[in-house]
Design brief:
The protein has a single domain, classed as Non-ribosomal Peptide Synthetase Peptidyl Carrier Protein, Chain A. Helix content is 69%, strand content 5%. It contains 5 helices and 2 strands. Helix 2 packs across helix 4. The radius of gyration is 31 Å and the shape is elongated. The relative contact order is 0.08.
């Protein structure tokens, strides 16, 4: 059973998929940081200093009654909030990742088309053709 698992795990597709997942997770972390630390603060500044991560609607107030300054304050008080600002961050994050993946797939498809458009190299001569060429050359020398 161990040998069978080893054979399965070492197949090219499984290893390629594992590498893709690892790179995807790292890429996702980069995009999440870009959206949360660069894009959304800049967008917030353009909208008058808004912080999207703290856009929420209180559904149920907690032990010390509101108003609450941050989403963390609502959660700390035991309240329930609809955090639509976090959703906006997630949607922007998704759109950027989806667009980046679209560009990668588009580039790969273009490279495959260019490779397919190249003329194929002529096939190597067969043994019979090589032998006939050799005979022809010997006869030509006589």
């Amino acid at each position: 059973m161990f040998q069978e698992f080893k054979k399965f795990a070492m197949r090219g597709n499984v290893v390629d998929m594992a590498v893709g997942i690892i790179i995807g997770v790292a890429f996702g972390a980069i995009i999440t940081s870009f959206v949360g630390d660069v894009l959304m603060p800049a967008l917030g500044m353009l909208m008058g200093g808004a912080d999207f991560s703290n856009y929420f609607l209180v559904l149920k107030e907690g032990a010390p009654a509101g108003p609450y300054a941050t989403l963390a304050a609502v959660k700390e008080a035991g309240g329930v909030a609809l955090a639509y600002g976090v959703l906006v961050n997630a949607v922007v994050n998704f759109v950027i990742v989806a667009f980046a993946l679209f560009m990668v797939v588009k580039a790969m498809n273009k490279a495959k088309k260019a490779e397919a458009a190249k003329p194929a190299a002529p096939p190597a001569p067969s043994k019979e053709e090589l032998l006939l060429t050799e005979i022809r050359d010997l006869l030509a020398r006589r």
